[in-house]
Amino acid sequence: MTGAPVPTTADDPGVRPGLGVLLAACISTLVVNANTSAVSILIPSISTDLGAPIDLLQWAVTGYLLVGAATIVTTGALGDVFGRRRIFVAGLLLFVATSVLIALAPSGAVVVVGRVIAGAAGATILACGLGLLSVASSGQGQMWGVSLWGGASAVGAAAGPVIGGVLNELSGWQGLFWLNAVVAAACVPLTWATVAESSDPGRSRRIDWAGTALVAAILVPFVFAMTEGSSWGWLSLPTLTCLVISVLAAVGFVAVERRVSAPLIDLSLLRNVLLVGSTLAILIGAGAIAAISFLISLYFQNPLAFGMTSLEAGLATLPVAAAVVVVAPLVSPLAHKFTARVVVMTGFVLLTASFAVLAAVRPGWGYVAFLVPLLGVAAGLALSNGPASSVSTACVPANQVGSASGISNMARYVGGAVMTAVVAGIVARVAMTKVDAGQAGAEALAAGFGRACLVLAVFSACGILLGWLVARRTRRPGVADLAAAAASTIHTLPPGPHRPAEVAAGGGTDGASTPRPGAGGRSPDHGGATISGRHRRHRGDV
């Protein structure tokens, strides 16, 4: 962006976003995240109503996340080039269309197709909505707006299972998707009437379509292998074929990204050990919560376990969501006092211990026996997620924050898709093996659930080591890094000119900190506006 520099420090009140852009961005992200978290609760009802197997409907969850991973950066780039409002509205309209398609679906396959397309719509809404919010504000006003946006996404994710359960009881599982369509449709005229168009005329107009396609080519066969490998055989031809396709696509992706002028991912960033470590920590945390949410939704509703209704299962998750809300505000003060490293590591210790307890599940366990470790999972996620998100942007130069944020965005989706697929495959395979060996159905189901939680405990234990790594030698987070943490319920900041380099109070680390003077720079390959010391003033309302 061009224009006179606007000094932006941690104490600068800046400019708050207008009411129109704030409502459009926050309502849409709330709906998208509520939809994402509610679908797992509805899978048993969809399966019964449409006669679709659970293993097919699992792709309604993983397919959505896979497409989101492949498109989250690209849709943000489309907004930078063709106008954020225009692309945001296109995402809303696509979300409306896919919601109607799913609500009218005559089969499970149509539900899955609708959800796969909805993954692109959701990614577009999140990327461009946050971009619109960022360009309409600055300084502390921007952090305030992004914090509200992050809060809306957290509320949506927490309320989704309950909303889905209530609507399923009142109107059937289709009710959730009709509600999605109505709310998203209402956001369209709100956006056109109140939000100013913005773009980045200085950004390259080239879009890395090849990179986007290759990301999908890496992830889809890999997730197929993880999902079906236990039944196909890990050394069978189909499994090995999927893995070979993923490897070849990864090689092709590296070759393409080295040659294109506006790459999807700046590969030079992968030499940054701190960024790679924090991204892996983000991937594990996001994957763990997505996987356990999927497992709990199915286990609680299974007649061999609790046999809850969808509403009861949704209400059963409320204390877990409440734990995240309670712990999240404590993260920043704890990071001030004990360093980000300690907080991240503590979060992963809690996750590891909680999953280890859940791995010991037995058929006779009551709800309270599940609730205690699930509260530990929630607290562990809250402690690890925000600081890791902040570190992922604080460990790179100012002109690379947008690219680093894009990597974090993709990691959240990838973690959710891969780990959900892995645990679903484990539960199905272990339960089938136990039944074939003569065990009762309830015991077999509990054994599969426990084995999946054991795998999640191992992944979380790796996060402890990553926690030791990710918070070293970074500067203290600035305004944008703190906003990144505030928005970390789904992803961090959108690609674009970046946050000020002045050192902000709080969120200290245990390594050396060298503040860089001056305003944020321009990323050579991404445009847009985030928390920046140099941008053109845009109004959120007209």
UniProtKB/TrEMBL annotation:
<protein>
    <submittedName>
        <fullName>MFS transporter</fullName>
    </submittedName>
</protein>
<keyword id="KW-0813">Transport</keyword>
<feature type="transmembrane region" description="Helical">
    <location>
        <begin position="413"/>
        <end position="432"/>
    </location>
</feature>
<dbReference type="Pfam" id="PF07690">
    <property type="entry name" value="MFS_1"/>
</dbReference>
<feature type="compositionally biased region" description="Basic residues">
    <location>
        <begin position="533"/>
        <end position="542"/>
    </location>
</feature>
<feature type="transmembrane region" description="Helical">
    <location>
        <begin position="143"/>
        <end position="163"/>
    </location>
</feature>
<feature type="transmembrane region" description="Helical">
    <location>
        <begin position="232"/>
        <end position="256"/>
    </location>
</feature>
<feature type="transmembrane region" description="Helical">
    <location>
        <begin position="313"/>
        <end position="331"/>
    </location>
</feature>
<dbReference type="InterPro" id="IPR036259">
    <property type="entry name" value="MFS_trans_sf"/>
</dbReference>
<feature type="transmembrane region" description="Helical">
    <location>
        <begin position="87"/>
        <end position="106"/>
    </location>
</feature>
<dbReference type="InterPro" id="IPR020846">
    <property type="entry name" value="MFS_dom"/>
</dbReference>
<keyword id="KW-0472">Membrane</keyword>
<keyword id="KW-1133">Transmembrane helix</keyword>
<feature type="region of interest" description="Disordered">
    <location>
        <begin position="490"/>
        <end position="542"/>
    </location>
</feature>
<feature type="domain" description="Major facilitator superfamily (MFS) profile">
    <location>
        <begin position="21"/>
        <end position="475"/>
    </location>
</feature>
<feature type="transmembrane region" description="Helical">
    <location>
        <begin position="268"/>
        <end position="301"/>
    </location>
</feature>
<feature type="transmembrane region" description="Helical">
    <location>
        <begin position="444"/>
        <end position="470"/>
    </location>
</feature>
<keyword id="KW-0812">Transmembrane</keyword>
<feature type="transmembrane region" description="Helical">
    <location>
        <begin position="56"/>
        <end position="75"/>
    </location>
</feature>
<feature type="transmembrane region" description="Helical">
    <location>
        <begin position="21"/>
        <end position="44"/>
    </location>
</feature>
<dbReference type="GO" id="GO:0005886">
    <property type="term" value="C:plasma membrane"/>
</dbReference>
<feature type="transmembrane region" description="Helical">
    <location>
        <begin position="112"/>
        <end position="136"/>
    </location>
</feature>
<dbReference type="InterPro" id="IPR011701">
    <property type="entry name" value="MFS"/>
</dbReference>
<feature type="transmembrane region" description="Helical">
    <location>
        <begin position="175"/>
        <end position="195"/>
    </location>
</feature>
<feature type="transmembrane region" description="Helical">
    <location>
        <begin position="338"/>
        <end position="359"/>
    </location>
</feature>
<feature type="transmembrane region" description="Helical">
    <location>
        <begin position="365"/>
        <end position="383"/>
    </location>
</feature>
<dbReference type="GO" id="GO:0022857">
    <property type="term" value="F:transmembrane transporter activity"/>
</dbReference>
<feature type="transmembrane region" description="Helical">
    <location>
        <begin position="207"/>
        <end position="226"/>
    </location>
</feature>
